[in-house]
Each structure stands twice: as structure tokens, then as C-alpha cells.
Amino acid sequence: MDFTLTEEQLMVQQAARDFAQNELLAGIIERDDAQQFPTEQVKKMAELGFLGMMVDSKYGGSGLDTLSYVLVMEELSKIDASSSVIVSVNNSLVCWGLEAFGSEAQKEKYLTKLATGEIIGAFCLSEPEAGSDATSQKTTALDKGDHYILNGTKNWITNGNSAEVYLVIAQTDIEKGHKGINAVIVEKGMEGFEIGPKENKMGIRSSDTHSLIFNDVKVPKENRIGEDGFGFKFAMKTLAGGRIGIAAQALGIAAGAYELALKYSKERKAFGTEIANHQSVAFKLADMHTKIQAARHLVYKAAWDKDNGNNYDLSGAMAKLYAAETAMEVATEAVQIHGGNGFVKEYHVERLMRDAKITQIYEGTSEIQKIVISRSILKG
Predict the structure, then answer these.
(1) Catalytic-residue membership of 363
(2) Is the pTM of this model over 0.90?
(3) What is the mean pLDDT of the chain?
(4) Triad 74, 76, 81: Cα angle to 5°
């Protein structure tokens, strides 16, 4: 087992760390309060190549491996999970899905702009009645020969208003169940496509999350991804990789909260000494550090599996489950170590705790990860 990062991976990691500290940290409390989308920061991330990290250079991407992407996600998430989820969705769900399963024409038209960050994308699976149960799609894409007519509503869509390209999962033939589902590419501005109000969220508040409404939207047949009926399989394959990105986000949130708690414990004094010298605090830090390291190894292993062509359904689910649970636990303990200051926004840990919660929910709840894991181990 070789845990040594390559020189290129170390450079990418350092670039992300520097960017997070120098560009994301400034104004983050104000962006969180105002639910302000980080427009300028996203532009700069695009310039650094962070929005198409795993895309082949012939389509304008950085051509890097999954582990490099995970390293970037971890560093960005230590500071700003709202910005990192924009990176995650564009990389894992939109760019990867198009590059892996899109037609050459779709790649030329959409992927080249998405990979360079000229535009960003959104992945549209969840509905009011189809969150964890992704087979229960009520959005329909009726086949009209050379086009589909799209009707329905999608909920909790990251990049909901800021995206220009939307990968929408919809039911074409209900009698075929999940085998009658298709994935189609919808462009902002198509007639009948409306963007609902922005969600007022507990965490990742500067990421824009919206409902989307489709009223008789005419989508050309050439905008379907893959063969007829491939949509559900497309969604599941894409989400399997997306979980690695969110696992890395959770890892970063945990690591960011831990670093703040460690620093604070060495500065804050109580009963005549720094609180780090009290066993009750020192043991918390020991547990936090150990769990972060365990989560990191799970996340890096899932990325390694993906890079080496191994099946990563199990390793990705384990990484996402454990990293998300670790993020919530570590961020909560970081607030506790800060005491009353932990409840105050200027110390940042309360935001990290709020941001951590969503990692247990989106791109497959912790309960869904346990279903994936248990089915895998029971199959033997």
C-alpha cells in the first residue's frame, strides 16, 4: 500500500489550499448570511481548472485523476462547502456523466463549455415524491418522434438558477418502470422551463438551490443521453461517482472544523492553562483526528478504485457514509470545544456544523448508503 501523493497531486492540493485561504475565506460569513452565490470565486475556480478536473483535455478539461479531484474538494470544503458543492456537481454529476455517456455532438456542444467553466451545469433527479426512491419519477418526457415533451417538477437542485445546462431524469414509458426512464439535456431559456424560488437553507447557503418546473418543454431527441431507457442506469452510475465527491466534501468540512478546534484549544485558557491541556478536550481532539484519518483513507481508496477501473459502488458508499457521519460529529465537537464562542459566527465552526448536515442527506442519505453497502456484502 502506497499512500504517497505524486508531485502533481501535491501541487494541485496546494493550489486548492491557497485558493481557499486567499479567495474563499474573505467574505464567507457575509455570503452565508446573504445566501449570495460566489460568482467571482466560481470564475476563479474555472480559471484554475477546478470545474472540469477529470475531463479529457481535448474537451477543455484538466485531465486529472479522481484522487486529485478529491484533494481539491477536501481543501475547498475546509473553508467553503457552498463553493465546493458547485465544483462537485459540475465535475461528478454533469461533466463526468456527459463525457462517459454523451454523444460526440453533445460533448462538443456542452462539455467543452462546462469543463472550462464558461458555463456550469445542474443534475436534476430529485422530485417532491422521488428523493431516496429515485425510481418514482413523476416528471415525464413523452416521445413525439423527433423530440420529447417534458412536464414535471424537480426539487432541491444545486446550481438551480446559475446553471445553463440541466441533465434531467424523466419517465418516458411508465409501464417499463425504471427501464422506461430517460436522461435529457435541457438548456436554460427553453420555452416552458421555469426556475422556482430559491430555497432558504440551514447550510451551504451561498449555493443556489431551487425547484425547477417544466411545462410542455420541447427537448430535441438528440439531447437524450444514451439509448432509450438508459436514464435510470445513467443516474445511478453518475451518482456512484458523485458520492466520492460529497465524501471528500464531508472530509473537508470535518478537517476544517478540527483544525479550527485544535488552534483554539491551544490559545484559550481555563483553570490556569490552555484548554488543550485538559484531558476532556485532548481526548476529543484525539477522537476527531482518528476519525478524520479513517474517513480520509476510505475516501482516497474510493477515488483510487475509480482511477484504477475497479467497481467503486461499495467503496464510494462506505466513504460517503463514514465521512458524512464524521463531518457531523467532528463539527459538533468543534463547536463544543469553542464553548460559547462556537455559537458565534465569527469563529466559523457553527457554519461548518450547519454545512456538515447536508452531507448525510444529499446524493444518497446515510440510510441509502447502508442499503448499498449491505446489499453488496450480502451478495458476497
Answers:
(1) yes
(2) yes
(3) 97
(4) 95
